[in-house]
Specification:
The chain is of the alpha/beta class. The protein has 13 helices and 14 strands. It binds pyridoxal-5'-phosphate (PLP).
């Protein structure tokens, strides 16, 4: 059996190395390294894949969040609703722009923001909501869209972990790709993401031409014409090398996601009967593309002991996330309410290895070891 990794970007590269090497060399030989035709080509293919009118690439997912917020002309002190159980970028961008994060608790079964809590947190200063489609499963966008319409809120979907996952968006059974339902969607091409490049990368999606034009300016120093600046912007561009890698990998994304789903099914089948843990649940309104496969341990199980036991058996694990954002030093002072579910989940959650390069014997080995624990 091969060594088990939490993510295995090297094996994925090795599988496709001859094609990827050629693409990368072609870019190097072209002399065009920033923006240019390779980046445009990738933006077009992603826009076709997502059926999103506008796709604007940028340097990373964190910048994409900042650019999205900057494009909405919000004022300092305006409030933005964010889940407390997410990667830090979501909240970081809000705070860096002088906006105020208002933390939402999560659903204990899906780990996604509790949409029932949203209305109770809206004030006259609330201007936007950032649903995070965490671990590869989408938030209840039907509810979020209807609340946003009622209170005239902007929706910025954080699809950093959910690229390729679809969700229901109205009462019909039609689904759309995550990131394409709100006013703006963002994603990240961080190497371990479902669609990852060999460095940093990100993108924004919108169906609105005016917003797309603004985002395009903001990501490129605020310039429309070279050296003529319309607004204060950022230097946030996708490298041509990363775009070439992403153009190669995008047609493989669905198959990567299917492999993740297959592994999750194998885990579910073997682990769901264990009384001392809960496997992740899936909801009807969304696909799950298992950016992470995260289980919840019963409170009598010592997580560190369990983690050490797996590690001694060559099985890496991760804690996504050990502390909710409202309990972290830079963000504590924004908190006005109790967020007990996220706190409880942070204590008991643990993520198992999942990636498209995993082999059947590795998954079965992990399940064997977990089944033998606490017997
Ligand atoms: C939910 C979420 N939002 C935003 C980001 C930020 O992306 P990046 O690391 O590309 O800045 C990440 C990182 O993967 C993330 O997981």
């Amino acid at each position: 059996m091969k060594k088990i990794h939490m993510v295995d970007v090297v094996s994925q590269y090795e599988r496709y190395s001859s094609q990827i090497n050629k693409k990368v060399l072609d870019v190097i030989k072209s002399g065009c390294y920033i923006k240019g035709s390779e980046v445009e080509k990738f933006e077009k293919s992603l826009s076709t894949y997502l059926n999103s009118k506008h796709v604007i690439s940028c340097a990373n997912g964190t910048d994409a969040l900042s650019i999205a917020l900057m494009s909405l002309n919000l004022n300092a002190g305006d409030e933005v609703l964010v889940p407390t159980f997410t990667f830090v970028s979501t909240v970081e961008a809000v705070c860096l722009l002088g906006l105020k994060p208002v933390f939402l608790d999560i659903n204990p079964k899906t780990f996604l923001l509790d949409h029932k809590m949203v209305e109770t947190k809206i004030s006259h200063k609330t201007k936007a909501i950032i649903p995070v489609h965490l671990f590869g499963q989408c938030c209840d966008m039907q509810s979020i869209i209807s609340i946003a319409k009622k209170f005239q809120l902007f929706i910025i979907e954080d699809a950093a972990q959910s690229l390729g996952s679809k969700c229901l968006y109205n009462s019909t059974l039609n689904k759309k790709f995550s990131g394409t339902l709100g006013h703006i969607g963002i994603t990240s091409f961080y190497p371990s993401n479902n669609l990852g490049c060999f460095g940093d990368g990100g993108a924004l999606f919108t169906q609105n031409k005016e917003l797309a034009d603004k985002i395009y300016l903001l990501a490129n120093h605020g310039q429309k014409e070279r050296y003529i600046y319309d607004t204060i912007g950022l230097n946030s561009r996708l490298d041509a090398l990363q775009a070439a890698v992403l153009s190669f990998k995008l047609p493989l994304l669905d198959s990567f996601n299917k492999l993740r789903q297959k592994i999750a099914q194998q885990y579910n089948t073997r682990l769901k009967s264990l009384s001392w843990l809960t496997v992740p649940i899936t909801i009807n309104s969304s696909d799950h593309i298992y950016h992470q496969y995260s289980i919840i341990l019963d409170s009598q199980i010592n997580r560190l002991d369990f983690q050490n036991y797996l590690s001694e058996n060559g099985i890496p694990t991760m804690i996504y996330y050990p502390k909710p954002l409202h309990k972290q030093r830079p963000y504590m002072h924004f908190v006005t309410n109790q967020l007990p579910i996220a706190e409880m989940i942070c204590e008991n959650i643990i993520s198992l290895p999942i990636h498209p390069e995993m082999e059947n014997d590795q998954v079965q080995f992990i399940c064997d070891k977990i089944q033998k624990y606490n017997n």
